[in-house]
Specification:
By secondary structure, the chain is an alpha/beta fold. The chain contains eight helices and eleven strands. Strand 2 and strand 3 form a beta hairpin. Bound molecules: adenosine-5'-triphosphate and 1-O-pyrophosphono-5-O-phosphono-alpha-D-ribofuranose. Pfam families: HisG. Keywords: Amino-acid biosynthesis, ATP-binding, Cytoplasm, Glycosyltransferase, Histidine biosynthesis, Nucleotide-binding, Transferase.
């Protein structure tokens, strides 16, 4: 009998696109995926169980082995630094990480402050740039910080650029492009290598077709 494969899916923005990709790859996902508050969805026809987690938590479930595979944004992978394999760029939910601030911003030497939902990523970036900054961790509405004087700059995701524009902020530096990735627990990869390789192959084919 084929073993069950547990997949950690990020709720929110990425979910719909990830479900669409899996369906195109031939996985028969029931209508519960389109309209449900369930956090665990079993698909016995595929011998698969899906768990629906907060995007930032997906690598944690995969690292601990309670999910064999998962879908996570590159932003989350950089921020969380979990011990998991990143096996495929799914090329969905594309956006990028940037530094932004008020127009005309000039670097301050004394006590520069940067607000972000991604303190590790931001710390890593400014270290690479050789700039010492104080990182202030926020959980959302990051664009508010420079407007209200909490920080001079922010490190945040930009997609359409609308949030920056509507709040009178400008992009100062681009840090890294972001897409969602398929990630795998190292032990699961040893135990279910054929199954996971097949999943990667099926998804790769759909991604290639989409970029042709
Ligand atoms: N404009 C965007 N803003 C934020 N994340 C985006 C955007 N576009 C794509 N993404 C991707 O979606 C993921 C975040 O999804 P979502 O916004 O649903 O979750 P979240 O912000 O972590 O959740 P919550 O707002 O409930 O805390 C990111 O990790 C990133 O990879
Ligand atoms: O370039 P845009 O298309 O405007 O998208 C970028 C915005 O979207 C995200 O915020 P989200 O909507 O997740 O709200 P949050 O501030 O509560 O995280 C992100 O943090 C930016 O604020």
């Amino acid at each position: 009998m084929t073993e069950w494969l547990t997949v950690a899916m990020p709720k929110g923005r990425i979910f719909e696109e990830a479900v669409e990709l899996l369906r195109k790859a031939g996985y028969q996902l029931p209508s519960e995926f389109d309209d449900s508050r369930k956090l665990i969805i079993d698909v016995p026809e595929e011998n698969m169980r899906f768990i629906l987690a907060k995007p930032m938590d997906v690598p944690t479930y995969v690292e601990h082995g309670v999910a064999d595979v998962g879908v996570a944004g590159k932003d989350v992978m950089i921020e969380e630094e979990r011990t998991v394999y990143e096996v495929l760029d799914l090329k969905i939910s594309a956006c990028y990480m940037a530094v932004a601030g008020l127009p005309g911003y000039e670097k301050k030497d004394i006590n520069p402050k940067v607000a972000s939902k991604y303190p590790n990523l931001a710390t890593q970036y400014f270290k690479e740039q050789g700039e010492q900054v104080e990182i202030i961790k926020l959980n959302g509405s990051i664009e508010l910080a420079p407007l209200i004087g909490l920080a001079d700059r922010i490190v945040d995701i930009v997609s359409t650029g609308r949030t920056l524009k509507e709040n009178g902020l400008v992009e100062l530096e681009t840090i890294v492009p972001i897409t969602s990735r398929l990630i795998v627990n190292p032990v699961s990869y040893r135990m279910q290598d054929e199954r996971i390789d097949q999943m990667v192959e099926r998804l790769s084919k759909v991604i290639e077709e989409g970029t042709e």
